[in-house]
Amino acid sequence: MTNSWTDLQNSRCFLIAGSNCAENHPIAMRWINRARDKGAKIIVVDPRFTRTASQADIFAQIRPGTDIAYLGAIIRHILVNKLYDKDYVLNYTNALYKVSKDYKFDAGLFSGFDAKGKKYSIDSWGYQLGPDNKPLKADSLEDPDTVFAKLQEHFSRYTFDKAEKITGIPAAKIKEIADTFCQAKPATILYALGMTQHTTAVQGIRSYAIIQLLLGNVGKAGGGINALRGEPNVQGSTDMANLFNSLPGYLPAPIGTDKTLRDYLVRNGSIQEKPLVALLKAWFGQSATKENDYCFNYLPKYNLSINASMVRIFDLMNKGQFKLLINIGSNSLVSIPNRQMVRSGLAKLDMLVVSDLFEIETAQFWREPGVNPAEIKTEVILLPAAFVYEKDGSLTNSGRWIQWKDAALKPLGESKPDLEVLDSLFRRVRQLYQGSTDPKDEPVLKARWDYGQEPSALKVLQEISGYDETTGKLLPTLADYLKAPAGSVSTGCWIYTGVTGNGNLAAKRKNGDPSGLGLFKDWSFAWPANIRILYNRASCDANGQPVDPERKLVWWDPAARVWSGNDGPDVVDKTKGPETPEGKLSFRMNPEGVGRLFAAKYTSGMPAAPPVDNLPAIGLRPAGLCVDGPLPEFYEPVESPTGNLLHSEVSSNPLVVIPATVPGIQKVGKPGDFPYVLTTYGVVEQFCAGGVTRNIPVLNELMPGPFAEISKNLAQKIGAQDGDTVEVASARGKLRVRCLVTDRLQTYKVNGKDTETIGIPWGWGFASLSPGPGANELTIGVLDPGAGTPEYKACLVNIRRV
Amino acid sequence: MTRKMVLADTSKCTGCKACTVACKEWNQLPAEKTQLVKSYQSMRTFTPDTWSFVTFDENYSISQMHWLMRKAQCFHCADPACLKACTSKAISKTESGYVVIDKDLCIGCGYCAENCPFGVPKVDDQQKKAFKCTGCIDRVENNLKPMCVQTCQTGALEFGERDNLMVKAKKRLAEVKGKYPKAVLYGEKEMGGMTHSYILLDSPEAYGLPSHPVAPLALTLWKDIIRPVGTVAMGGAAAAVVFGILGNALRGNYGPPESGKGGKE
To answer: What is the pLDDT of residue A305?
Structure first.
């Protein structure tokens, strides 16, 4: 989230698209309802009329996976009718920046496409640079080279009519959504997996960013782009590098060609030196010195050409690439798409270790009905895990609040907290390596690992928060970290710096909200530096004064010559006023210091002349990039009932990743055989893959099993009535489930043709007190090329009454 | 204690069912085996172990979907039919507005269940006792909110003084009517005024509730007119048997709407 749960109360309009928050984040409704009490409007766009939709002022049923088409139409509407916030666009975005003359978009492809390698060479996605290597800026938005002009040109194709033909949402309704959202300020966008579980995941969210930047809604109370994170600690786990391509604090993970720290900095900019060195100091302590490159060579390096995300791991497992899988906090056999691939992959392992509360499906994959245990050689070990209330530690919520909790209960029986399991595992492994002189064993032997005899979660959080390595004392604040020279401080995750600097701030529980804006600054600690609303400099005008008098976040105090406010000011330097170059920057984490309407290739601080030693130059800060284009483009899901109306020759994402190391493992169906669109989701009564909740009788009572939701038209067509059993099949698998006939799904037109969506919740499996088939029997494991998220939300199926 | 009230603003209910879990936990009620009844509703009616559940009704017309969700439990009527029907003086009303069953006095005759216009009380055949929502009277009388209200995340359930909440409810109804012209306040006057009152987004019938709930005619006849005479003539117990039979024979005008078959499960 750029903002926070409690900030939702400040919004005047919600676009909830790609999130069924009433179902999956029920607490959201508390804050949304407070905004509604003050007259806020709710727009819900979803393939189904959901629990969230029941609360909406405007609901639109969309064909799964076509969001960019209607969002593109909204962007076009904003541009054509000049609904954008001109001051904001000029001052706080890269609208005026001049794009390289080589940049092009034609027939579904951006310039630089390499068809053989299925990737883009992105040099043409840069800016026109001056002799100082800084981007050239035009004088006005009329200049044909500007980002703004590229935006206009790109989205000119996205008319309301075209969007209707693609999405199935009537053009008039898209216009109503656009007008409602553009007229209300501040307005916010809420999304979750409904937006990200597509092969156009990153670009869908880019569309949101463009809309919110054009409307001037980012950095403001009640605005922003708010990703509603899943399990209570999904935010925390991504902060701590649950993603294959990052290190804690979103540092890029080193790749195979990064032989030295310098190589790494050439790719990632000098800005990453301090956090990476601080991380290496946290991990290797005194062993990490300037002379040995701070143990940079201890870090594992990944292969850029392999998208080593979750689905890919199971794909490669089928090839026999893994001997051992330690599976903690995930019911992979239920939650990974195309689960036949997961099951066959697990059978190729030598050993599988599952740590969980119950014997979840993953732990007993070898005795799934239909599987012959005699044919499976994998040794399976189940470790009893402690429940969330049985362990100390912190959880980071979607609003980046790091919240500490103490254990409320002693772990049941022999179950252990994850920390204890991992701590004893590491210490025993280290013992086995004692005495080794093999260089490859050095990281294990030299790791700084001291969380006490009974490992303390607070000590872990303190390591994450950071130490002054010269004194061994805790680093008080992020400012102290920023002031210190590289190598003299350690942090296990630089964005968390200071969380335990002055006591355990994550445990703070003061409920005061003097500004009335829901900032709650003394409740826990929000990263970074307790800033509650990111980019809040953009809530001020050029003079540093709040634009919205009712929602004042920060301001420049000219008398005291300092940025201050109700929230922590998100500025480069609190003492640099709005007249200084630093004081103008509202998006300081971008190399340009402004919001990026166009995701250009750019690195700030590149020296004008190459270094004298002939080594490659190191810039300051490279921009974040989208591998599949600097602007969002609509592509059909990999399995789609129709061709791409914008460019038939490039239907789905040209960079899509289809993990199929073993041939035939990822079959793709055709609409002739599988005419209906399937979308999958969770239900509020059961949690995620159900490993816990399906073993709780009182929750099974509320939602006793899975179902297939279908429209009345489709029910009539296949001769099924509510409660009948239906068989749903995709190119990858089939299942039998109760059918739920509902008006909440309606037949819709796609390019003039009647189309049906079927909905099946995914969180069931063959084990537990409430067994049942889960939708990942059917889903397809194709991935977004940037984020690696699978296309859970759209594939093709057929259905018949049994 | 003054008259209390729970206001359920169904315009804010998302049917998350957390209230019903809280009810089971607080009252230590066992879970039941269920299957979906309609839409996302998993309980058809009340049982001795389920005193509260959420109803789901889907109303679709003119391209407009209304998904109506309502937490069902005892309304705690000011003029409760169950109390009138009770043959063993097990049912009483509290000052705070709650209708409670004294298990020690209950003989499990089932007349309360037969006569409630909403089909709320249910008799457990083994224990021979009637069960229903207590309104968390044990909490309320110790200045705690009822457990369902305590748990509600969205702000759909609110607990307070009846006089104050009723004023608020009327104000809220006026707001809700802007979007839902058929919205009604249910419980202000019905059955003498209910402790659990609702802002419904559609007519009560759309939720499967009677628009004008009344105690069965036979019950009224028996309790208010015949029994005072009959008790004198032949003694209480015999009167209860005779007129209970009479009552059940005459019954039928007001079948419990949430249950095909009223009474014992």
So the answer is: 83
